[in-house]
Amino acid sequence: MSDLVTLDDIRAAAKRVSKIARITPLLDVSAQAGRPLLLKCESLQPSGAFKIRGAYNMVAQLSADQRRRGVVTFSSGNHGQAMALAARELGAPAVVVMPTTASKVKVEGARSFGAEVIFAGTTSTERRERAEAEASARDLTIVPPFDHPWIIAGQGTAGLEILEQCPDVATVMVPIGGGGLAAGVAAAIKLSRPAVTVIGVEPAGAAAMKASIEAGFPVTLERTDSVADGLIPLRPGDLTFAHVKRFVDRVVTVEDSQIIDAVLWLHGCANVVAEPSGAASVAAALSGLGGPGPTVAIISGGNVSLEAIEEFRAGRRS
């Protein structure tokens, strides 16, 4: 329990990240969804995803010497963009290791914030190993994508906002990749309002957290595969697993077809641009996997091209 972030940690992070993170709106789409549903639009954050909360919270707490030497991370895209932006704002050189399959919009986003982008393999393990090698060779500080208390506390600030914006919220649905967002949001909510139900959502083809919860310890999958490229690590973090086990009520899975349907529903019915990873929570909500009462689904990111959305739409028509 001592390793879990506290409510004070999350409140301190909220003050820290207020310099750059937006208080993103809650969009009421109950009429369109046919059930009480609100969207927490983290897609409207600078760099297009919630990741700026954790990245800025960590880089801001590094020493002046660490920032001078620079930072490095490994990311499928959104965390890399967020760390690059945080590093730019705080005067630190940034290196981002991305998969060879990274989407063009995410690569260009990281570079636009001044980061050096290196490509390594297709798995999170390959990216992490390359980032560790770069950190050792160049004396850089690693800013991990999810498994660090400063990252988790930063992500938890979204949970505090939800409680302030929707006092009668009954259920919060959160996408799970490595688990940083779910860990932080669930901690913020359960330490403030224990009666609120928190549900984590994973792609069926990359359900590492669900498998870990069922096993009772972090499990490494042999492979993962999903259209939601930000939700496919082979293994959750040790610290994120501990938080999810303690604070998340249950973890559910959705199929890629449901995720794509949610992307198209958000675009067509709610005028919201969400990447597949960001729409997983909505896929679960629309599929009846939510809990009771007013539900908030976190749209965790919107870094997807309109061309990709049109391809999804064309695929549904064929």
Radius of gyration based on Cα positions: 18 Å
Total tally of structural domains: 2
Distance between the termini: 51 Å
CATH topology of the largest domain: Rossmann fold
Number of helices: 14
> Total number of β-strand segments?
10
Task: Detail the poorly predicted runs.
Answer: none
What characterizes the major β-sheet?
6 strands, mixed
User: What's the oligomerization state?
Assistant: single chain
The helicity comes to 40-55%
General form: globular
Q: Mean of residue pLDDT?
A: 94
> What structural class do helix, strand and pairing data support?
alpha/beta
CATH class of the largest domain: Alpha Beta
Q: What is the topology?
A:
Layout (H helix, E strand, L loop, with lengths): L6 H11 L8 E3 L1 H4 L3 E5 L10 H8 L4 H6 L1 E4 L3 H12 L4 E5 L5 H9 L3 E4 L4 H15 L2 E2 L6 H17 L5 E5 L4 H13 L4 E7 L4 H8 L22 H10 L2 E5 L1 H14 L6 H11 L8 E5 L6 H12 L1
Parallel strand pairs: 2-10, 3-4, 3-6, 4-5, 7-8, 7-10, 8-9
Antiparallel strand pairs: 1-2
